[in-house]
Fold this protein.
Amino acid sequence: MPATSRPSDRLPESLRPEPGRIRTIAHRGDSSKAPENTFAAFDAAVAAGSDLIEIDVRITSDGVPVIIHDASTLRTTGIDADVALTSSDALGAADAGSWFGSGFAGARVPTFDEAAEWGAAHPGVGWLVEFKGSWTAAQMDGPVATLRRYGLADRTILQGFEEETVAAARDVAPDLPRALLVIGRRGLDGLMERLVELEVAGCNPIGRLPIEMPGLAARLREAGYSVYPWTLDEPDEWGAAGVAGVDGVITNRPGAFRTWHNLRWSPAQNELAS
């Protein structure tokens, strides 16, 4: 990266920070309208006008990357097992929709390959791909190859909480933008140094951090990083995050957020954070 550029310049041009705009990022799809991390939730996120869809990736016992948040399959499929100890066939046959509502009975846990194929058919939406837990470079190879195969590399950001996971993404795909997730104040110790070492484009903190610490988002933005806090679902949270100076909001209610943004937000408000 040239010395005069900013870390967020690593992002595809369509995803770079824009003054006065807070991007809409659908948390696990539109998980207020459909069961999270399913095709129904992805469809609903597009219908809501989301700029990006955030998804979670884990690996099954037979080494297949799948789209599921929890380490356990119990909450969303009713199967009391660990994802890492469950085969992709068993997980693929599970009902991942009935827990949300009877109208979604039979919804499946997508494989990463299937999600990428869906993404290729919906070119207007970006992807924020969270790799859950610790991933090695060897494990990261497959998902990265899938993103390239389906032409999603130019509208995808890779992220994780674990530094070794973000480092693995850097080593396997230095051209793909990355973000580091931060969950608490302790994660702020030495943060700027870690962001430089990992060569990330953004830092995505838990939502209360940029609200409780308004200077955090400003500091990150001044250093050139994009900032997407999670998970913010109410107008007062959206307003506080916007004034703090975030570039996007990860939310379970992308449709409501879009409406709020269009009716209540303006570039002049965003300048309060500058």
Summary: The two ends are 25 Å apart (CA to CA).
